[in-house]
């Protein structure tokens, strides 16, 4: 998607190259359901993999001391089924940076074809107080550079 609209919005499917952060996930036989395709609940796990890899290994310390991310919102649109065996690729990009929250656009691909799109909102929290905490200036600058 070249426009800055929600990746969950109907319309043309994004391509993996639209996402600066990319992860891979191997499909497990146990991910399948009675219809022989990957169960819908597993798609949320795919998005989690992409989200966590971006937040933890994305190139900057986004959490700071005593920081942890919690998922506040998840939207998921299914575009087509996924079949075992194989793997999927997960694309993630920063859509919006708030004071302590971050909205991510994501997509799942199998064989180069978009099979699902989603939007995740995470909140940075302090593990001691269990309340939101603002991003550091360095983390905010990094995240804002990631928004197109």
Description:
The chain is of the alpha+beta class and 148 residues long. β4 and β5 (113-126) form a beta hairpin. It has a single domain, classed as Thiol Ester Dehydrase, Chain A (Roll). Strands 1-3-4-5-2 form a five-stranded antiparallel sheet. It has two helices and five strands.
Short descriptors:
148 residues; Thiol Ester Dehydrase, Chain A; 19% helix; disordered N terminus; alpha+beta; single chain; 5-stranded antiparallel beta sheet; 2 helices
Summarize the structure.
The chain has 148 residues and is of the alpha+beta class.
Q: What strand line-up does the widest sheet have?
A: 1-3-4-5-2
CATH class: Alpha Beta
Summarize the biggest pleated sheet. 5 strands, antiparallel
Question: What form results from the Cα inertia axes?
Answer: globular
Helical content stands at 10-25%
Strand content: 35-45%
Task: Calculate the mean pLDDT score and round it.
Answer: 91
What would the CATH topology be? Thiol Ester Dehydrase, Chain A
Please specify the SSE layout and strand pairing:
Elements: E1 21-26, H1 40-57, E2 67-78, E3 87-97, E4 101-110, E5 113-126, H2 137-146
Antiparallel strand pairs: 1-3, 2-5, 3-4, 4-5
């Amino acid at each position: 998607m070249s426009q800055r609209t929600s990746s969950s919005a109907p319309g043309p499917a994004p391509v993996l190259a639209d996402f600066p952060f990319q992860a891979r996930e191997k499909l497990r036989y146990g991910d399948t359901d009675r219809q022989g395709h990957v169960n819908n609940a597993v798609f949320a796990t795919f998005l989690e993999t992409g989200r966590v890899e971006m937040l933890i290994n994305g190139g900057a310390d986004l959490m700071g001391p005593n920081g942890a991310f919690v998922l506040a919102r998840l939207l998921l649109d299914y575009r087509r089924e996924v079949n075992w065996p194989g793997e999927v690729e997960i694309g993630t990009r920063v859509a919006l940076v708030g004071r302590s929250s971050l909205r991510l656009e994501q997509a799942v691909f199998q064989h180069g074809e978009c099979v699902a799109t989603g939007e995740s909102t995470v909140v940075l929290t302090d593990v001691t107080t269990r309340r939101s905490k603002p991003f550091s200036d360095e983390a905010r600058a990094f995240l804002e550079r990631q928004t197109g």
